[in-house]
Amino acid sequence: MKHGLFITIEGVEGAGKSTVIAAITELLTDLGLQHITTREPGGTPFSEEIRAILLNNRDETVEPLTELLLMNAARVQHVKQLIKPSLHNGIHVICDRFNDSTFAYQGGGRELDMHLLETLDQLTLEGFKPDLTLLLDLDVNIGLQRAAKRGEKDRFEQEKYDFFNKVRQCFLQRAQAVPERYQIIDASQSENQVKQAVIHAVRECLAKKRSMQVIAIERGNVHE
Ligand code: Z5A
Fold first, then answer.
1. Ligand 1 atom nearest to CA at 20
2. Structure pTM?
3. 3-state SS assignment for residue 183
4. Mutation test of ligand 1: which of 48, 53, 105, 149 has the most ligand atoms closer than 8 Å to its C-beta?
5. What's the CA gap between 86 and 145, in Å, rounded?
6. CA distance 142 to 11
7. Which residue ranges of the chain lie beneath pLDDT 50?
């Protein structure tokens, strides 16, 4: 039986996703577990091209629906070509953003109809979901201050406080509605405290997966 864990990292701008992903990678390497890190939008050559289209600054206004369709198009390619094959080969997948970002940014931030988002999400993922989602929750002003230290802003980073606050509230609502899949992490803590909280959550998820596999083997109920 081979099946990796699928872990997604979510949060507003500057929440510290890259920092946390480095800590998870270090943990999995130390444990000798095969893993890959990937990101959305992106993750395959085709989806990375869609990412560039989505993030590049341009004079033409991008319609929210266009943005939503492209996010989902990139995700179909990413899931079918990289994420699912890796998981089936027993490789753990750590993904910087996934479908919760679509609900938060295109649903919360852009205010597109949530029923439309649900329908597209079902079409794109057919019920496939992460084993664990780490939501790095952070006051928007702190996130914007952290992100301001970087260079040129992409198309999303041009947005203001109100947009990102709607994004944050949407992330929190989703996480609070399904607490068994999400871990909300207070990202205003020090880098070291955030790292410890994340490592604890990933270790717990690995242990849960292992005990479920043992039960499946005992019952002779083993699937690829
Ligand atoms: N998007 C969407 O709209 N719909 C979708 O479905 C998807 C995405 C999938 C690209 O994402 C954009 O796509 C994104 C949403 C949209 N736009 N926005 N905003 P991205 O993930 O590539 O871009 P990002 O959100 O701008 O990532 P980021 O700003 O790089 O965030 P981060 O990775 O979370 O931050 P970081 O680089 O780890 O940390 C930022 C700084 O803070 C850095 O200097 C760190 O050293 C510092 N830091 C980190 N942790 C701490 C703590 N704990 N204390 C103090 N300082 C810290």
1. 38
2. 0.95
3. strand
4. 105
5. 36
6. 12
7. 224
